[in-house]
Amino acid sequence: MAAPEEQELSPAQTEKLLQFQDLTGLESMDQCRRTLEQHNWNIEAAVQDRLNEQEGVPSVFNPPPPRPLQVNTADHRVYSYIVSRPQPRGLLGWSYYLIMLPFRFTYYTLLDIFRFALRFIRPDPRGRVTDPVGDVVSFIHSFEEKYGRAHPVFYQGTYSQALNDAKRELRFLLVYLHGDDHQDTDEFCRNTLCTEEVLNFINTRMLFWACSTSKPEGYRVSLALRENTYPFLAMIMLKDRKMTVVGRLEGLIQPEDLINQLNFIMEANQTYLMSERLEREERNQTQVLRQQQDEAYQASLRADQEKDRKKREEQEQKRQEEERARQSVLAEERRQRTLAEEKERKSECLPPEPPMDDPDSVKIVFKLPNDTRVERRFLFAQSLTVIHDFLFSLKETPEKFQIVTNFPRRVLPCLPTEEQPNPPTLKEAGLSRSEVLFVQDLTDD
């Protein structure tokens, strides 16, 4: 398949081709023609780009591979709009342009050589960012001193903070890099950026961050965004979960054109922003649902823990009650054994019962609380304590009791007290040879 024939050059294009070859020193006419065609036959822009390539500055049409940055600038779908300077018109304009071209070429060449040499002598102070917020605030103050306070609202924070806020709020972020020494900067700031329609549009539609490239913070952002000329504007937004440059506007742009270009960029990327909003809402809803599920789980867990705690407390209380009951039973058993042992001891210590024909004996019938009767003989000379010990040794007798006479009713002092440490004898108690005594149960008392 034959290669397509190249289009013939017009006389004006041929003249520009020869001028470009003379100014750049390139020997290949094909390379000169390709470079001019890439710049729409703008000889000044083509010469400047060629000089930038010789200094190692990346070309507009051959950018270096992207570096890892905070903002994705490697998206090939980035919309780029470059406004070239108007070409001279008429014989007088071309004459002035050709006369000034050698001087401009010499000036920029010497300036670039001087800057290149200065890098070896003294490192660029902009390479160290020590106070990024101070750099931004200083630029804002100098901007207002020169152009007044009628301007879009500047974001008073670092570039990273502006990116984070735009990402969090899902808003467009417009970045403006201010070139102090560029010939179009002053006209752009006065006649475009500070016009009422532009500042109203920017203030209502997006965040706006700006800084001078003469400041370390602005220079750092300049290295990240790799602008080619000034004025430079970049539109950044959250796209595919990354802060991405979606539009680049370079050159002296007019207010109406600027608004149209920004509108075009925003409309072209609005779907991505809406998608991010929907995804964020979905993530938030998922997070809220998960949080509610976690709260419900925690509430259920706390309820189960409380139930287990109450169950353990009930079990512990039941165990303690059973233990107390067991201890009470053991204590009662010990008490009963002790009582039985005491009764047996008392029984063994009782004096023998006197015979029936003993003139000093007393026959006593005891009526117990369970309506049983017990009869035994005692001696008049024996203490009432013997009567008490006898009754105590009986199994039918309650643990605590007192002995009461019927007529007259009185309680016999059978046990020693502080007032009467030695209880009286049966005779001293006034008992006759035959008596009926009642045993009164005092256990409840």
Number of helices: 11
**Rounded average pLDDT:** 82
Task: Provide the structure class.
Answer: alpha/beta
Radius of gyration: 58 Å
Share in β-strands: 5-15%
Q: Helical amount among residues, as a percent range?
A: 40-55%
The separation of the N and C termini measures: 131 Å
Could you list the spans in which at least 5 consecutive residues all have pLDDT below 50? 1-5, 62-70
Strand count, sense and barrel status of the largest sheet are: 5 strands, mixed
Order of helices and strands: HHHEHHHEHHEHEEHEEHEEE
Number of strands: 10
Rough shape?
Answer: rod-shaped
Strand order, biggest sheet?
1-5-4-2-3
Biased composition (Basic and acidic residues): 303-348
Keywords: Coiled coil, Cytoplasm, Endoplasmic reticulum, Lipid droplet
Region (Disordered): 300-362
Subcellular location: Cytoplasm; Endoplasmic reticulum; Lipid droplet
Comma- or semicolon-separated keywords:
445 residues; alpha/beta; five-stranded mixed β-sheet; 11 helices; 10 strands; 52% helix; 14% strand; rod-shaped
Mind explaining what this structure looks like?
Keywords: Coiled coil, Cytoplasm, Endoplasmic reticulum, Lipid droplet. It comes from Denticeps clupeoides. With 445 residues, the chain is α/β, with parallel strands linked by helices. The chain is built from eleven helices and ten strands. The strands form two sheets. The protein has a five-stranded mixed sheet, with helices on both faces. A five-stranded mixed sheet has the order 7-6-10-8-9, with helices on one face.
